[in-house]
Automatic annotation (TrEMBL):
It comes from the Bacteria. This is DUF1778 domain-containing protein.
Length: 51
């Protein structure tokens, strides 16, 4: 996923080692980086809550 502007914001989240492994595995299966997967998932969840 490419963006037209630099992504210089940073959100740090602490997760357990096994949780990170599971998230990375799901992201890989969807053809996404872990960052892209987390960004996409968080954005979709925020949109559902905002409605």
């Amino acid at each position: 996923m490419r963006f037209s502007e630099p992504m210089d914001g940073l959100i740090q989240v602490r997760v357990a080692r096994d949780e990170k492994r599971r998230l990375a595995e799901v992201a890989r299966k969807r053809g996404l980086t872990l960052s892209d997967f987390l960004r996409q998932t968080a954005t979709e969840a925020a949109q559902r809550v905002a409605v």
